[in-house]
Amino acid sequence: xxxxxNRMKKNCIAFLPVLLITLFFTGCSPRNEIPENAVTVYYLTxxxxxxxxxxxxxxxxxxxxxxxxxxxxLSETPERLEYKAPLNMGFTLKSHAMDNGFLTxxxxxxxxxxxxxxxxxxxxxxxxxxxxxxxxxxxxxKVEGEPLTDALGSEVGWMDSATFISNDGNEINTYEEVKVxxxxxxxxxxxxxxADREKFYLTSIPLERFVVEEVIKGPxxxxxxxxxxxxxxxxxxxxxxxxxxxxxxxxxxxxxxxxNVSTEIAIYSIVNSLTELSGVDKVQILVDGxxxxxxxxxxxxxxxxxxxxxxxxxx
Length: 315
Fold this sequence. Notes:
By secondary structure, this protein is α/β, with parallel strands linked by helices. It is built from six helices and 16 strands.
């Protein structure tokens, strides 16, 4: 199991979790005087282990002009050669388009030549910089018109400030490869089907939270016959485990389930997935800190009777 970012880079691991990564920063140099209309532009360190913050001035009033300035700064080689500009890494930004705060960047095919560790840092530097423009809510990467995907073929998707977790300490970025069993539903929403998923996850977050995040993301699309059980807009308020019980607190988007999916199936897709983990015997699900109406149980155990298989579905 590879756990160190540098080792990941050395072995050319082709996948890192989309949705979550820790970066550590070398800091904002006091020698870089802060301009009056300052924004922070993120550059890569030459050793590709972190990001360097530099202040730049963006004085334009027009949002498109401010965005153009940020893209220019991201393309320019810094005055100190120990930094690298994220848009000067061997690929070209072909176009950018904004639609109601959603910014799409389309790159040339050379973007795919970046090593995994490099790609994550490049993506983080670009997204963090561009999100400082108030008109930008989320950013999507495309390569030659196609959404950026990881090595498993899953789309990276829209990114915002929550996609990247900052850590300004000196810890080495640590990941572990994990194989988890997640439960999704069948076409009719009447049962649960288990599917194994292998990913690298950030060890600074609980594995239980990672599992809930993956259930919310839904099936990867690589296995026909699996359908999502939980509203993709569901937000995770907290996840913690004590004395064998995993407490999952979600926002009220959880109450709006996908088509044909009952609240019971949504609940047990999470319960069955979490109880696959060592140390989790029961699960308590709350919505906005409250027990679910019509589901007054304080905790749920795994329901094997809801589990079916793709083979049974086809028979």
